[in-house]
Amino acid sequence: MSALPKTASRFAIPIVGSALFLTLVAVPFFAPRAVVQDLFGVLTLLVLAMNWNMLAGFAGLVSVGQQAFVGIGAYAMFAAIIVFDLDPLVGIVIGGLVAMVLSVPMAFFAFRLNGAYFAIGTWVVADITRLAVGQIKALGGGTGTSLPKGTAKEMAGVDQIRALLDISSAAAADALVYWIALALAVVLLVASYLFLRSRMGLGLQAVRDNFTAARSVGVDPLRLKSAVFLLCAFGTGLCGGLMFLQITRITPDAAFSVIDWTAFVIFIVVIGGIGTLPGPIVGVVIFYILQRVFADYGTVYLILLGLIGMGIMLFARRGLWGTFADRFGVELFPLRHRAPPRTATSTPVMPSIPASH
What we know:
Blueprint: H1 3-30, H2 33-58, H3 67-82, H4 88-110, H5 116-133, E1 145-146, H6 158-165, H7 169-197, H8 199-209, H9 211-216, H10 221-247, E2 249-250, H11 252-255, H12 258-272, H13 279-294, H14 299-315, H15 319-328
Antiparallel strand pairs: 1-2
């Protein structure tokens, strides 16, 4: 009897997922521009949350310095446009690459620390980066700068989208960055699943669960954690450039904001379910709803977020999705590796022991 629901869910999940993806792709064709902008914000937060979840939830690297990669990715994108007159889409890629380069010295320093010291170390590096970027006069120094007027409208592909949807250039630019954010979120989700199901992903989770035991069976913890740290920095830097292309103005405090780009991201992952792939998706939806309902209440809104986070950590330590999955046995992205069933030929035959008299 239980085989039927499992078989049905195996087919239902890809169908529902594909339908949801196609609906999200079609949003700019029928939804107002404000909806496209809101969904863009949700998707970029989701990308940040999935990157942090990969670090903290699967690699055991609890970083509080992800704003460093957001900020440096955004500033590199601004430099590519303002200083080198490159297309914004090229600038976004450069932002991701520069963030990955920054992660090398950051990892060299932070990987020498453990636990809370690692978290504080990443925060310190992020703050040093913020102070250093604030000294760059070509990008506005401490007061920041803005993109040249009409930069987003001149991106490659905007004219084609404007003609296709029969909308203004500004709305076409919004649709383009929205589709890029959607593609980035989907690619990151699929890539994370495939990686965690691979041998390297299994080794990464083994390192998280028991460093000594994983190392004793031939897993190289430093190599795995370094690779994940660099790749997450690249993804976070891409997202930083994409977000500030939409914002169009940058300052060191905004680009390296620990509250906007790390604290809120940690909240999303914790309430959704750290160490699970659907967790950040659930968390970002709940965060968006809370933000829309309570944002007008000022500091009360932040206090409410803190109370909700504390409640989840106390009474649902695996997050909402993790608790739900444990209770009902639902696995959208199963990561467990099960041993193959034993066959008759592989089952060892126990020798018969004569009965004693």
